[in-house]
Predict the 3D structure of the following.
Amino acid sequence: MLRDNAQRAQQAIVIHYVIASGALGAAILDLLYVNRLSHGAEEPSTLDSLLDFGQGAMGFVTLVLLTAGFVVLIRWLRRAYVNLKLAGLDTEYSDGWAAGAWFVPFINLLRPYTITREVWRSTQLQSVGSVQPHTLLRIWWFVHVFDSVVGNISGRRAFSAETIVELQSSTWFSFFANLLGIASAVLTAQVIQRISRFEEDLQLQAQVQSLGSPAPEPVEYMPSDFTNEQYF
């Protein structure tokens, strides 16, 4: 019997949209901070103090949200991968890699993507008998990796900035990193949502089959452009 993954999917979707909202707030604070640096002031005002506090608080909130998002994403992906085996399919890796691959240097640059791609493909094949060769997965992973790299650079620049010019430069870098963070979080939510729909079909078919009745034909997710085309 397949394990229900709908609740984990919904949690992951919601928290990634919250992450996107937090990144938007951080980007707005970056713009305000750049404006403050551009105009300068000999004596810091109350507004300046509030801005400093807001940036510090937002940094902490962002860290908490990203950690939570990472946890729920891995929990959802691992269960989705386990369900492939429970559906009688052979998987390329053990289900432990669905979680562990995110933490191993260099391997984490590609293997989480290949595991997610395997879930995407196999779930659709079991659900509707065809695969939708969508570019969503490739765009998602490219943005995710790019966001990780830019975010790391942004943190280093902010830590080493000392002059006004360096602070302005690092803040602009942070602004663009937050824009990437928004895109990454939204794309992650979209990927989870897309796969979750087919998981629901698969779960329904498994339940009906367990009652000894033929599985219903899926009708909702059969766009005409479905093919068995392989994709990277």
